[in-house]
Design goal:
Layout lengths: L8 H12 L6 E3 L7 H8 L6 E9 L5 E7 L6 H8 L2 E3 L2 H8 L16 E5 L8 E4 L5 E5 L1 H8 L3 E2 L6
Parallel strand pairs: 2-6, 3-5, 5-8
Antiparallel strand pairs: 1-7, 2-3, 2-4, 6-7
Length: 163
């Protein structure tokens, strides 16, 4: 991890937002991409479960963006999410970029362009801290699950696909 390099524009925007919100941990740049949970975990030296990945759907009823912040170890159960927020469709890269404001692989749970329906994976609450994307495929920041809940205002739900 290197904190000294200048941050890309979207990561700098997230860092500024975090400062405004009183969050005390910096945005850090991974030397390698953090596009997947496994890549981010390898770069950070943490478990895949500690990666708070942001998965975006499109709600069919009103075309609203729906974001699930899930443990990197879990697959999101689309049926569980739909039962909570309504029928869902896929959100392509263009939808995510224009409606949320970040490119896939660096979608931050904060600082969205428009109101986003959000849910937090209950499994994240079992962890001491998690790493979330900070607006860029190489940028991440650390926070506790309680901070994630407080900063997003999102409810906690069972969203994981269970075998």
């Amino acid at each position: 991890m290197q904190a000294e390099a200048p941050l890309p524009d979207t990561a700098r925007r997230v860092a500024e937002l975090l400062r405004e919100l009183g969050h005390d941990k910096p945005v850090v740049m991974l030397p390698e991409t953090g596009k997947t949970s496994a890549e981010a975990a390898a770069g950070l030296g943490c478990s895949v479960a500690e990666i708070a990945k942001s998965i975006v759907f499109r709600r069919l009823a009103d075309d609203a963006p729906v974001m699930v912040v899930a443990s990197g170890a879990n697959r999101v159960d689309e049926q569980k999410v739909a039962a909570l927020v309504g029928p869902l469709g896929r959100a392509d890269a263009r939808f995510v970029k224009t409606r949320i404001g970040y490119a896939i692989g660096g979608v931050c749970p904060l600082g969205h362009l428009e109101k986003t329906v959000m849910l937090i994976d209950e499994d994240l609450l079992k962890l001491d801290s998690v790493w979330a994307a900070a607006g860029h495929p190489h940028a991440v920041f650390n926070l506790t699950p309680a901070q994630l809940r407080a900063l997003t205002g999102a409810p906690v739900a069972d969203v994981a696909l269970r075998n």
